[in-house]
Design a protein that fits this description.
The chain starts with a strand and ends in a 7-residue tail after the last strand. Helix 1 crosses helix 2. The strands form 7 sheets. Strands 1-5-4-3-22 form a 5-stranded mixed β-sheet. A 4-stranded mixed β-sheet has the order 2-8-7-6, with helices on one face. Helices cover 25% and strands 24% of the residues. The longest helix has 14 residues, at 75-88. The chain is an alpha/beta fold. It has a single domain (2-363), classed as L-arginine/glycine Amidinotransferase, Chain A (5-stranded Propeller), CATH 3.75.10.
Length: 370
Amino acid sequence: MTAAAGGTAAGTGRTAAGTAFRMPAEWEPHEATWLGWPHNATDWPGKFAAIPWVYGEIVRKVADGEAARILVESASHEAGARRLLARVGADLSRVEFFRIPTDRGWTRDYGPIFVRRDRPVPEVAVAGFRFNAWARYPDWRKDAGVSGRAASALGLRLLRPRVGNREVVLEGGAVDVNGRGSILATEECLLDPRVQARNPGMTREDLEGIFRETLGAPHTIWLGRGIAGDDTHGHVDDLCRFVGPGTVVLCREKNPRDENHRPLEENRERLEGARLENGSRLEVVPLPMPAPLYLDGVRLPASYANFYICNAAVLVPTFNDPNDRRALGLLSERIPDRPVVGIHAVDLVWGLGALHCLTQQQPAAGRDTG
């Protein structure tokens, strides 16, 4: 299927208390996974030729259990993607293409953040947060239109989260939810007033209100800093993730001389004192880190926490590292209801992101399962 998307979103909504929308946990059933087929070679300097083949492997695994909805630039871009996916054995009957132009490939951050509710009738909608390229890069205007155009193509209501009259900037990788009312975020990413400030002047309370009203997450667990090499300035999906309603995995760096050691230990201390939405303590499971990777002397954000949970598998970035096996085994123990599959990500992370950064889940319609 190919959808030529454009125009305005079908319907609008208000982010007022009582709408009952929530962002489901990633392990809840999906209708689809969204990806932007790669086209910007500057995202992966010197490595771009390998990247479509990594995407092909991701789509092959995703399509085993749900639709893969792929953003493409044009008919020729789509044709190239189809050829490659056929060569790697992806189930093309489960692949849908949407001709929605993008600037870059990081669909998690600019793509539609889907929310759902059960009453008065089951409904999936799109939380159309603003996107400004992590308050860092100049190429973002096409990406900023993706959420609205995707909502229009699907016939879904588009919500525009606001504080007062201001639309809110939020990337998908900046938060992680358990689907029950708790959300993870970092102060470095969302509250730093000087570096890559997404929403200058907005307060902690403003953002917590948005999480409550738009994402159905009234309980925010604030971490401190993110990992070294992360050009987003602290995305939580590189360091800490929910793997169950009451359990998180948190990256741990044992080498005290590594620049990640202290920030991760400080986050562990925060989580040990944190509570969930129901007042219970979190279970915090340490997730190893791979050895540092560098590009031209710059640290890359290599992390096993950038995994993606789809219907048919848990896709985990691997780095030709001795800790690959440990990370895969640990996640297999914590997410036992589907296979855990390693995806080679040494080339991907040259673009300063990995599997979770490339994907965005669309929850299944029907009654809530969280």
